[in-house]
TrEMBL record, chains A, B:
Protein name, per record: FAD-binding oxidoreductase
Organism: Kitasatospora cinereorecta
Domain of life per record: Bacteria
Chain segments annotated as transmembrane: none
Keyword terms, alphabetized: FAD, Flavoprotein, Oxidoreductase
Length: 533, 533
């Protein structure tokens, strides 16, 4: 068998950590960060090497017709062994990556995918669809033992923009395209998908669709669902696609069953996506609040208005301090407006007025309403660097992870308070040190919001995963008690499966299980995520 | 068994036609309308009487425990025999209403529904969920012969608003509530669902949810899907509900599988719905266009802006003339803006500018931008009276019906032209007279629009249904050829089933069929709609 490697950018992706290999913090930076977290190591763990892994021979071999699409080389297999959660990084650092896929396939067209699925069905090979590999919920690894082998199905060789309908603001795009490539190819048309998850550089359209990714923008159309006009899905039971429609009332939405299906029902190979004109008018401001509760009420008022800010991120005091957006213990609301149609200064001013009515203090540059102010800039640059810093801290033996949820407004204040107190107590118990627990709202809705938590704790290098699993279980219990979703935009994967099973209504569980058995009769598609066949 | 009649308003609903019995046009008005349509009757058909129907004894009798919820009286059975499509009205007028349900049940709580379903499963009784009965697609009647009997499950006794979360802009509401009652109970809280389908007075929340109803507003949040926060569903396999969440990425949306499920997967008995503040600022205007194509381009530009008009209805020349909105052969665009947050005059002015750039001529009152102009008022009053006039024309032996679709912008001009020419030719062939075929856009999207057609033809009184079925088949073929959905907001029911089966992707058909069998193992839920078990 020969390696049918996908086209790769010239920079090298890290096989074990976030993003580009050359962007990892160096040992000195790691050590400096570690010094800020009590109970961490004095020196960073070494960056792991693929050569140190024991990677056996694959348990199956593909037939000759498929061999050109498939590789059994250690490099791609190691890189496809898991996603990019904190626990994945630690597993790599500690030399315990778990089960490594027997094979990695790089299909080039739908027929390749269909043939791979057919062969996998016959051979009882688990097939794990893989886009950019940025899952943080155990979505791209095989953990079972009921299959003869595991194949990672890497879609990134299917990365073309096939058609652009500029008048109709839509494009037909293959699922394996990475975020920057997609935007590069839309730019000449003056159009953008305007969907920027934090993983944007390292995730694919297909991954966004399969996980119902949340975009960067705080209100209005931001989740990938809303940008989906039609989907083509390859399943073991056949390949078909939905019609391009702006809207339809003909039965339950066919696409909505596959959006968020995480590769368990089929492989999304292409989509018609809805595009937007690139914004020409922008304005942003920050508003500081002495107390979080007043800030929450201000954000609720703004979310319930029809002002539709592109950004409406509320950073609690800790988060604001970490991002350099405030140093006096204030919570900071970062507001941004964008439009391709008309200037947005009036909308910004109205939103700032709503914030002021709840005691908000606009930043010094807000009055102009035309350029990003200092707090906004500080927050943005911290945001993009965050996952790299997480990996640096992981090398110092720290526990450092995020999780996000969403709940209705009535539950938000107590939910945030309970996560903070119960997680704080659990961290102290587990590590003997206080943990840093920060919160921001990433998305706001008229009827609720999505809090996003960051946890940083030291204290038990070597046992980091046990500590994290303990903290995550506490967090999941708090979320469940408040009927807050186990994930707002990071999918279920394998890590959230127990919580998802408790959250999902039984009628839907029955329907989903039945759909799974109908579309995937051999139970080969991403076994372990979402639902059992 | 005793009649457990639901609470009724003091006015009487027509058992055979649209709306209130006392609002039907009288014989003189019918005759005057008929005179405008060549080839109709000289005198109206008489209004039909329940007493003239042959209504047999029911084939089954419910057990004593359920008897208080169920009636076998002819009146309710006749009124529940069908919906309110043109073809339903003609069937009643011609004394051929088809199969009349054996029983009508009025459950008062979820347990009643569950027990009725259990009994129906044991007895092989088809259960047809029924809200306001305003289906225009054969959604509320049993047409099969594989069941021992048919029961109409009328939800209107479950009509309470159970809880209002005013801060969180949401309410928990039973599914059987009619539109006006819901709004009456929300008004004291200063809130509104702001979902106004044309059937508003005569349809229920549960009906809107089960059919994915489209609201009155042209852009933004308008379909009931977007106002759905959580659903409780009673199925033969059990009862459960989704969590109240503003948004979630945990797997495919559970609610989206039941939105549009038309009673085939379960009975929606309550929902948490998202509410809005009542708008305080309004502005509207009309803009006339000499040609439809220029108007379509203007509407596309407005839909692709972020102005979000509440109304953006484009009436073609015929529709505008019929509504009294224009008399000179112009197409008319009716624009309206609403907000609870801020004045909307600026947004109206920007939209009018976009229309002007395509040759649009604003109406005389548009400049003020504060009150409804004449064309707007004329159109609104015609809109509300339309279904009554349809029934009056039906009594004159005319064919008079509407159908709607949606398609991407690239297909809209040819789609409208082809419907007009092919339907016109078919009508001439079938009746020997030219037909009136009008079109308006009811909803617009950045990537497409929803054209809504009205057909009025005379010529073969007595054979109206054969003529209409012929025309509808031609229309369905044109829609299919243009990949335009068989319904934008009137559901599939039994009338659209063949077209829906051609439109729906096979992978979804497999999933839906499997879900149906899992949730409804005895195949009793609304047999014939959407999918076979």
């Amino acid at each position: 068998m020969t390696a049918g490697a996908a086209p790769r950018p010239s920079r090298t992706r890290s096989w074990w950590g976030w993003g580009w290999a050359d962007a990892h913090p160096d040992d000195a930076e790691c050590t400096a960060m570690g010094a800020l977290v009590p109970g961490t190591l004095a020196r960073p763990l070494p960056q792991p090497e693929v050569a140190d892994l024991r990677i056996g021979r694959p348990a199956v071999e593909p037939p000759g017709s498929l061999a050109p699409l498939v590789t059994a080389d250690p490099g791609p297999r190691a890189a496809h062994a898991m996603g990019k959660a904190y626990r994945d990084v630690v597993r790599a650092l500690r030399g315990r990556p778990g089960r490594i896929p027997d094979l990695v396939a790089f299909p080039r067209r739908d027929r390749d995918v269909a043939e791979l699925l057919e062969w996998a069905g016959e051979q009882r090979v688990a097939v794990v669809p893989y886009g950019g590999g940025s899952s943080v919920v155990g979505g791209v690894e095989y953990r079972g033992d009921e299959h003869r082998a595991a194949l990672s199905l890497d879609l990134t060789a299917m990365d073309r923009v096939l058609e652009v309908d500029a008048d109709g603001r839509a494009a037909l795009v293959q699922a394996g395209i990475l975020g920057p490539d997609l935007e590069d190819r839309l730019r000449p048309h003056g159009l953008t998908l305007r969907h920027f998850p934090q993983s944007f550089e390292f995730s694919t359209l297909g991954g966004w669709l399969a996980t119902r990714a949340g975009g960067h923008y705080a209100t209005g159309r931001t989740r990938i669902d809303e940008f989906t006009q039609a989907l083509r899905v390859v399943t073991p039971a056949g390949t078909d696609e939905s019609w391009r429609l702006p809207s339809s009332g003909a039965g339950p939405s066919p696409d909505r069953l596959f959006l968020g299906s995480e590769g368990a029902l089929g492989v999304i190979t292409r989509a018609w996506i809805r595009l937007q004109e690139r914004p020409r008018h922008k304005a942003s401001a920050s508003v500081a609040f002495t107390g979080l509760d007043a800030a929450l009420r201000a954000v609720r008022d703004i979310a319930q208005s029809d002002l539709l800010p592109a950004n409406c991120r509320l950073l609690d005091a800790g988060e604001a301090a970490l991002a350099g957006a405030s140093a006096d213990g204030s919570a900071v609301l970062v507001l941004g407006f964008e439009s391709a149609t008309a200037p947005v200064g009036d909308r910004l001013a109205l939103a700032v007025d709503l914030a002021r009515a709840h005691g908000g203090r606009p930043g010094p540059e807000a009055a102009s309403g035309t350029a990003d102010d200092g707090a906004v800039r500080a927050w943005r640059s911290a945001f993009l660097r965050m996952p790299y810093l997480r990996d640096g801290l992981a090398r110092m033996g720290a526990v450092v992870e995020t999780f996000e949820t969403a709940a209705t407004w009535d539950r938000i204040p107590a939910l945030i308070a309970d996560v903070r107190s119960e997680l704080g107590a659990a961290a102290s118990r587990a590590t003997g040190h206080p943990a840093l627990i920060n919160c921001r709202l990433t998305h706001v809705y008229p009827d609720g919001a999505a809090p996003y938590f960051t946890v940083i704790a030291g204290g038990r290098p070597g046992d980091e995963l046990a500590v994290w699993d303990e903290l995550k279980a506490v967090a999941a219990d708090v979320l469940h008690r408040h009927r807050a979703t186990i994930t707002h935009h990071h999918a279920v994967g394998r890590d959230h499966r127990p919580a998802y099973d408790r959250q999902r209504p039984q009628h839907f569980a029955l329907a989903l299980g039945a759909a799974k058995r109908a579309l995937d009769p051999h139970g080969i598609l991403n076994p372990g995520v979402l639902v059992d066949g």
